[in-house]
From TrEMBL, chain A:
GO terms for molecular function: rRNA primary transcript binding. This is Brix domain-containing protein. Pfam families: Brix. Residues 74-84 have a biased composition (Acidic residues). It comes from Gryllus longicercus. One of its GO terms (cellular component) is nucleolus. PROSITE patterns: BRIX.
Automatic annotation (TrEMBL), chain B:
One of its GO terms (cellular component) is preribosome, large subunit precursor. This is WD repeat-containing protein 74. GO terms for biological process: ribosomal large subunit biogenesis. Pfam families: WD40. It comes from Gryllus longicercus.
Length: 323, 380
């Protein structure tokens, strides 16, 4: 068919067609070659834009297909919330009502957080702890002074603290974050990586206002993910001050939890309202190592979930995620 | 016998829910049907199921101990809860409950054992903190207890006295005392021996009828917090589960060795049941799954997500119930001597045992002479 059409076209134009032999890469002169190449590129681009515009005006623009990633083709987790039936849903709801975080979500107490370090922290670690103190309302940052975790838990219980954050480091690099919920656990341990304090992001700490921030938790879909998310949420005050326009985000992607801290702004543009974001810092990434069912116990603890020692059994596929 | 065809596994959770599960295996494929036996709106953390046991030998009824010291009786034949009563003794949750003389024995964390029976009644004060109480399968009036810094003890419920107290092992190579924390107890099948596991990683067997109070078998799994143990039907393996979700079989013949690492758990294991006839292991734990393994291979056969953190599991002895007619047909196919009733089968076994016993009793003892000679030499 196509060859017939070509023949007809040739008859209509009555012109002799020569085989085109002006391939740009055959031109020997480099200057001419590059000039022509840039020209050709520009033409192609213009044509593409024009075609796109035309399609948009006609309304024949097809929506692009969802990209296939290892997340969109994720293996189903049997503890995922969207798999529950009606009775299971009721039971899980009851379970959540009886969880350790139920009093927080029922607004029965205001969180009070202690932030501390491993012994002799590096300067950057201390600055990071102090920044966390600025972000988390009602938080206090103190040096560890070689006190065992058990003793810290005891005195924090006495002083009415609700959570403890311990930043751990190895060879002067931050590598761990432990979150202990008081008075009866659970305890979670995260691997801490890619820490950028606000100085490294060229921001000043004075930009962080004292308003209570909003907390955004993204993509936590399983039972374990839910317990981790509520653990992180329970560090912050339940009642954000919206006039501060401050938001902290815990975004879970492929079991890595990314932390970002922003100030947002509503701008008035030509086409209505726009939102401007300014990152305030710090930023860091967390990866869950284990969750203990009680307060931290190094020797005789029972774990809700632990991956160390069984990574080959659990990480059977790249498409399997736990949070 | 309809109840035996119905649910064959029962699971209790830390939220208080009790689930009846009908496990089936057809052509090597496992399937299950789960039903909640309690209404969801009555559940709560004070209702946590902390102990479960069969009420009778027929396995018709289940005794369920809750954290608030309530004992519930569930009848599997009529699928409903029967009587409910409270222990009201000491403090803490129930850590063991079982039938005794048509009444019940209830043990609570503070170290009190309440006997509620027609003939014997009263409270035994053992001292806490108690972690576990188990009823002997061989003699009905003996229970075993243990806990943190509480060695294994066997108690006679009728006479209300302690008949055996274990003794701690010798000090370690640094001359330091080995700490004690009995976390689970199980009786060896058809024997007086008792197996325990401890939170410091010890697996031990005690022989109350023997000469020594120290364990006759002692095995250490370093850096494992053992939380549950169960003896296999043959009695030569103890399956133990740990706080980090490791489940392994310890071979108790000789010095002891690790046999298999059963795969599939991600959270602490709370209870293990080795099936008395099929070579299957059932385990539940904080990862909210019921898991089934074969005793012979580390592979996971079946797992089921049950919504809440699980604490207890009970398995029916006749797991895959066969109707008597079907059973007879299968038996005739295999050319085994047909026995119309189970009881007959049992009685023939006991007959054989008696005959063997008589044979041994009639024999002359040879060892005594040797012993006498040896002692004489020593004196010289």
């Amino acid at each position: 068919m196509s060859s017939d059409e070509e023949v007809r076209e040739v008859e209509e134009t009555n012109e002799v067609l020569f085989p085109e032999d002006r391939k740009i890469n055959k031109i020997k002169n480099k200057e001419v070659r590059s000039r022509l190449f840039v020209k050709l590129k520009r033409q192609k681009r213009k044509a593409k834009i024009a075609e796109k515009k035309k399609r948009k005006e006609e309304g024949t623009n097809k929506p692009s297909k969802p990209t296939k990633t290892i997340e969109s083709t994720r293996e189903e987790d049997d503890t995922a919330f969207d798999k529950l039936d009606e009775e299971g849903n009721l039971e899980v709801r009851k379970d959540l009502e009886n969880s350790e975080y139920a009093p927080y979500f029922a607004r029965q107490y205001e969180p009070k957080v202690l932030i501390t370090f491993s012994d002799n922290p590096a300067k950057k670690t201390m600055l990071f702890g102090r920044e966390l103190q600025r972000i988390i309302p009602n938080a206090l940052c103190r040096l560890r002074k070689r006190i065992p975790v058990k003793n810290i838990v005891e005195s924090c219980n006495r002083e009415g603290y609700t959570d403890i954050l311990i930043i751990n480091e190895n060879m002067k690099q931050m590598n761990g974050l432990m979150v202990i919920h008081l008075p009866e656990g659970p305890t979670a341990n995260f691997r801490l990586s890619s820490v950028r304090i606000s100085k490294e992001l060229r921001r000043k700490y004075q930009e962080i206002s004292a308003h209570r921030p909003e907390v955004i938790l993204n993509n936590f879909s399983t039972r374990l993910g839910n317990s981790v998310a509520s653990m992180l949420a329970a560090l912050f005050h339940y009642d954000p001050e919206f006039q501060g326009r401050r938001a902290v985000t815990f975004h879970n992607q492929r079991d890595y939890i990314f932390f970002r801290h922003h100030r947002y702004e509503f701008k008035k543009g030509e086409k209505g309202q726009k939102v401007g974001l300014r990152e305030l810092g710090p930023r860091f990434t967390l990866k869950l190592r284990w969750v203990q069912s009680g307060v931290f116990d190094g020797k005789t603890a029972e774990y809700d979930w632990i991956i160390s020692g069984r990574r080959h059994d659990l990480e059977t596929s790249r498409r399997r995620f736990f949070l | 016998m309809a109840y035996k065809e119905d649910r064959n596994v029962f699971v209790g959770s830390l939220l208080g829910s009790i689930k009846g599960i009908k496990l089936e295996k057809k052509n090597g494929v496992w399937s299950s049907i789960t039903k909640n036996l309690r209404k969801v709106d009555r559940l709560g953390s004070s209702q946590a199921v902390t102990a479960m046991s069969w009420g009778d030998e027929e396995q018709k009824e289940i005794l369920i101990g809750l954290a608030d010291q309530t004992v519930k009786v569930y009848d599997t034949e009529y699928s409903g809860f029967g009587s409910t009563f409270k222990a009201d003794v000491g403090e803490g949750k129930i850590c063991g409950v079982s039938r005794f003389q048509e009444g019940a024995v209830i043990a609570v964390q503070s170290g009190h054992i309440k006997i509620m029976a027609h003939e014997t009644d009263g409270i035994l004060e053992i001292g806490g903190p108690m972690e576990k109480m188990k009823h002997s399968s061989l003699s009905n009036n003996i229970v075993a207890t243990g806990g943190k810094e509480k060695e294994l003890q066997l108690w006679d419920l009728e006479e209300k006295k302690c008949i055996f107290t274990a003794k701690n092992v010798r000090h370690d190579y640094l001359e330091l005392r080995v700490p004690v924390w009995v976390s689970d107890i199980d009786f060896l099948p058809n024997s007086n021996k008792v197996a325990i596991c401890s939170k410091y990683g010890h697996v031990r067997i005690y022989d109350p009828k023997g000469h020594q109070r120290r364990p006759v078998f002692d095995f250490h799994i370093p850096e494992q917090v053992l939380t549950a143990c169960s003896v296999s039907a043959s009695g030569d393996k103890i399956v133990v589960g740990s706080g980090t979700g490791h489940m392994t079989a310890v071979d108790t013949r000789g010095k002891g060795c690790l046999h298999h690492q059963y795969k599939g758990s991600v959270g602490s294991i709370r209870e293990i049941v080795c099936h008395p006839t099929e070579s299957l292991i059932f385990s539940v734990g904080l990862d909210r799954h019921l898991k089934v393994h074969s005793l012979e291979s580390p592979k996971l056969l079946f797992k089921e997500y049950l919504n809440t953190k699980l604490n207890c599991v009970l398995v029916r002895n006749e797991l895959f119930y066969k109707h008597p007619k079907e059973k007879a047909a299968v038996d005739s196919d295999c050319e085994i001597i047909e026995l119309s009733d189970n009881e007959e089968n049992l009685s023939s076994v006991t007959h054989e045992k008696r005959a063997l016993n008589k044979l041994f009793e009639d024999m002359e003892s040879v060892i005594d002479v040797h012993k006498a000679k040896k002692t004489k030499r020593k004196r010289v």
